[in-house]
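The material for today's practical consists of a large collection of protein records. There is nothing in a record beyond a sequence line and a structure line. As an example, a complete record with its sequence and its C-alpha cells follows:
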Amino acid sequence: MSVAIRIIPCLDVKDGRVVKGVNFQGLKDAGDPVELASRYCAQGADEITFLDISASHEGRSTMLDVVCRTAEQIFVPLTVGGGVRSLDDVDLLLKAGADKVSINTAAIEAPSLLTEVARRFGNQVLVLSVDARRCPSGVSTDSGFEVTTHGGRTSTGIDAVAWAMRGVKLGAGEILLNSMDADGVTQGFDTEMIDAVRRQVRVPLIASGGAGRPQDFVTAANHGADGVLAASVFHYGVTTIPEAKNALRDAGHPVR
C-alpha cells in the first residue's frame, strides 16, 4: 500500500506573527500562529511546520513560547525550525512540544551537527531544510541548483542535490526542499528540482515553494514528493486543505 501524501501548512513566523511574502521579501501579516495552527488542524492538516524565518539571520533562538502554545493546541506532528544551532536547541524544542526539528543554516556551517542530532534523538526527528534556487549568474553547480542560507539571503555555491544526499548520509530522516525562486509566487512547484533530488534520496521528501492551486499539489506528488508544504494559498484562502486532498484523491494518490 502506498504511503499517504501529507498536506503540511507552513507558518512562517517573525516577531510572534505569521507572515508571508514573495521570495521572503515584502512580508505581510497573516495572523496568529496558534490560531492558524488550530484552524488548519480542524481542516485536516497532516502536519504543521513552524519556521522562525528571521532567527538565523538575527542570530537568536526560536521563540519557545510560541512553540509551546502551538503544540498545546494541535494534535498532529509539529516540525519547528529557525535558529537551531546545537543539541541543546533541539532538546529545548522537543521538550516544548515539537515532534521534529528542521535545520538549515547551522548544518551548512557545521555538518556534523546532523549526525550528533540523529545519534542523540533519532533520525526520525531530524529534517534537513534545503533552501535551494537555480544558480544565478556567476554560480555554477553540477545540478544547476545551489543552496542558500539565512532565509535565502546568502549564497553558498553548494550543489543542492549533492547537499541533500550528504545530509541523508549524515543522519537526516527527511528532506524539506524549498524552492526559493518559487516561494510565494503561487505559480507551481519547481518540478525539475524535485526530480533532481528525488532521484538521489530515498528518505521522505517534502516539496515547498510554489503552491497556487489544488492541481499543484498533485503535480508535486506526481514528481515524487511524499508531502507538500504550502503557506500563502492557505493563509489567504486561495485554496483549502480539503480541496488539495480532494485533488490528490481524484488523481489516485492516497491521502489521510
Q: What stands out?
A: The radius of gyration is 16 Å.
